[in-house]
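Problem 12. The chain below contains 165 residues. Write out its predicted structure in token notation.
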Amino acid sequence: MITRDKFIETFGGVFEHSPWIAERAFDQGHIAEPLRAGPLHEALCTEFRGATLDERLAVLLAHPDLAGKLAIAGELTEHSKSEQAGAGLDRLSEAEHARFTDLNTHYVREFGFPFIIAVKGLTKEDILAAFETRIGHDRETEFETACAQVEKIAGFRIAAILAEG
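Solution.
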């Protein structure tokens, strides 16, 4: 039987810097062994969806800008570093980096949280296209889109953790 501490240590980071989601899922008795990706993902997403708007916003704010300052400084979480590298965001040209920086700045100014997209399987061109489309959304639509992307990212991370273990 997995202990609470081990569960939070293992899955507390699947929602960026938000271990409270794993804590709540465990404490509510929503975690059943054997741990399987689908049910585990659903349990964590249920807690995320049931959180207050401010708590959900805090999860969005915990995400780094794509190809942003944290990436340049080497301060991304291991999950984020791997995900961004997989999409080629660690190998941008100067012009591409400038474009991402401009879009990140405009997006945060417009919505109050960073642009979030599950980059697994996407190219930098796919990401830029999504960026340019989504920047035209209203805030409510984009908030829900960003939350859905956070859940998708969590699903990829859970699957990767379970595959390692």
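Discussion. The CA atoms of residues 42 and 63 lie 20 Å apart. Students who got a different answer should revisit the alignment rule from Section 12.3.
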